[in-house]
Amino acid sequence: MSFLVAGLLLFLGTHLIRVCAASWRSEQIARMGPNAWRGLYSAFALLGFALIVWGYGEARLMPTMLWVPPVWTRHLAALLTLPAFILLVAAYVPGCRIKAAIGHPMVAGTKLWALSHLLANGNLADVLLFGGFLAWAIVVFAAARRRDREAGVRYPVGPPSRDAVAVVGGIVAWAVFARFLHEPLIGVQPF
């Protein structure tokens, strides 16, 4: 469990720097240059991610059950991850109305993903992992939206076909991940 906690602190902490220490971040970028900063930031984030994967896998070998979720929560989780995937894809489709409306769809999708998995899983490692990501996403989303409002950021809107690309791409990504990748990578078949 200690590797999971260390990984969460490192990964989520790295991703909170802009929110919690924006001026320090700016000083470091000015001092070392943007490429060196990105490299160091990426190295810490990747190390954190590796520790999360290792620690979560280790913690699942001897789970500490906090509650037993009802079976229907697995179905709810599968359903909630569908819009999470659509939001994830919308983050990368230029001119998408979803991005224009939400501002930061990847973080919003992370909130849905974390919440859905928190509802469907009841052991300590799940609460730490999904609860940690949910708390992080709530804080980061609020800070990013506030930053956008203060800067007067407006995301461009393109034709409706951009939204169709995001929705269809999200549905396809969700179906492929749920059907073919979730069990081999995570060890659980969602359907």
From TrEMBL:
<dbReference type="InterPro" id="IPR009915">
    <property type="entry name" value="NnrU_dom"/>
</dbReference>
<feature type="domain" description="NnrU">
    <location>
        <begin position="4"/>
        <end position="190"/>
    </location>
</feature>
<protein>
    <submittedName>
        <fullName>Putative membrane protein</fullName>
    </submittedName>
</protein>
<feature type="transmembrane region" description="Helical">
    <location>
        <begin position="164"/>
        <end position="182"/>
    </location>
</feature>
<dbReference type="Pfam" id="PF07298">
    <property type="entry name" value="NnrU"/>
</dbReference>
<keyword id="KW-0472">Membrane</keyword>
<keyword id="KW-1133">Transmembrane helix</keyword>
<keyword id="KW-0812">Transmembrane</keyword>
<feature type="transmembrane region" description="Helical">
    <location>
        <begin position="76"/>
        <end position="93"/>
    </location>
</feature>
<dbReference type="GO" id="GO:0016020">
    <property type="term" value="C:membrane"/>
</dbReference>
<feature type="transmembrane region" description="Helical">
    <location>
        <begin position="38"/>
        <end position="56"/>
    </location>
</feature>
<feature type="transmembrane region" description="Helical">
    <location>
        <begin position="127"/>
        <end position="144"/>
    </location>
</feature>
